[in-house]
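Q: Can I see a sequence and its folded structure?
A: Here is a first one.
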Amino acid sequence: MTAEPTNAPKTPAVAEPHIARRGLLFIISSPSGAGKTTLARRLLAADSNIEMSVSVTTRAPRPGERDGVDYHFADRDAFEMMKSRGDLLEWARVFDHHYGTPRAPVEDAIHAGRDVLFDIDWQGAQQLSEKMGADVVRVFVLPPTGEILEQRLRTRAQDSDAIVAKRMAAASAEISHWPEYDYVIVNSDLDQSAHALHAILTAERLKRDRLLGLSDFVRDMQAVL
């Protein structure tokens, strides 16, 4: 077999075109224990172009949680002040504590073409959808069965029996909001669910309405044809 000459001309590399894109708000919701937090972490590890929204909460930090990384921890008065100033895009009361999404970092990310991931409940998803409209993509995660959901909740060492009972009582009401979401994933296999979640994100990024630079790109292309 004759070897190809080493001095043969090489095909010049073609640079990937850059088309400006508006960022999106990627919401994952589920009843507690269905796996949304694990899936969110998998997505963040697999994709460097999406960042986690850091919520503000009035609950106390759990062991290992860091202020400004896992949550912004605030007392009730500070939380109410943020609400009154319009500094929160959404807020909700969950199991005697308040949670909310700071407005400024989310809007900055969207305008810069970065995506923001939200691990929030149906109340927060509704509020974000009302305020951010077409920028929002909503995914609801279901457990394989109710029995598996209860088992997952009972294996959480940091939650008391009383908290588990509250979460189970709320699960049916939470699940009833699944029709409000754009996509539904039944989390029976974590790897398959993580793959499906990333596929949804990829498809949503390619929607024509999000590609702000597409018209200019096509116009420049036509100019040389």
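Q: Show me another, different protein.
A: A second, unrelated one:
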Amino acid sequence: MKIGLLFAGQGAQYPGMGKSLYESSDAAGKVFDDAGEQIKEWCFEGTQETLMLTHVTQPSVYIVTMAAYQAFLEAISEFGESFWDSIELTGIAGFSLGEYSALTAAGVIDNVEKGLGIVKNRGELMLKAGSDAEGNQKGGMAAAFGDRQTILRCVDEARQGGILEGVNFNSKVQTVVAGGKEELERFKQVAAANKVKVFPLSVSTAFHSPMMEPAIEPLRQILLKSDLKVPISKIYCNVTGDDMFGGKHFAEEDITEHVSDMMAKQAGSPVYWQETIENMARDGIETFIEIGPGTILSGFVKKTLPQIKILNIEDEESLRKTMQTLFEMTEAKGE
């Protein structure tokens, strides 16, 4: 059975996330303990307002996601090697911040501690890029529901020389727009006139837009010093929606530069998530497992490919349900 793993991104956070995994899984507990008390406090006790802060959100979501992934591996090991052999991991993808979880799961980032360091720096750089001289946020994001081309025409009309872009192409019916506060207000008015519904998102600035330009080169320099490794599985990247390596086999010494370029660019580029899901299905993936807080990505999959099976792992209950479903599916196929 060919499966694809999807890793949650920023916006999926909620108070108490990861706590049941910490209490029920030794592997997940170790991830949290190694990350430190501050992140545990943010995840388990933090308010929605605190968790919206970029420098809090990014490391917190990364750690919850990696804890859920380790709990998944732990659960598979308890089923035995024959169960693991019946599952073929065909590809991995992560949504925005979640791409760092995907890189960790694929071994490009070879330990969670390294990944956490990168993600902390990323969050701080993006927060600074999206703030004015007084530390106030300059922008935001909003989800628009309708035809992609109609939404992009509304964006073009509302931009008026400012920062405003379609940045997350999530499904056939949802595109996220990011930009300055004034530009977003104009966009809402233009969108309403074109019968496009718009809802503000709980994020602190305009991610994946030109507003992130100041963060790109400093992030690239951090990544270049991170000694990245050859992946052990196929990674579908946000920037193209397809294989991060374009089907090419990179030598160990060339991996760090290539991934650093791609991931630095990702901070200010659109996320082609609909294309990512479609390309993973094109390559034979028949079951997706969303890993990390929430089920936002599951919703995108259902809207893009209604016939595809989607499971998730965010807490003890969802882990148990997913493992039971996978067991039943492999049994039904006689694998």
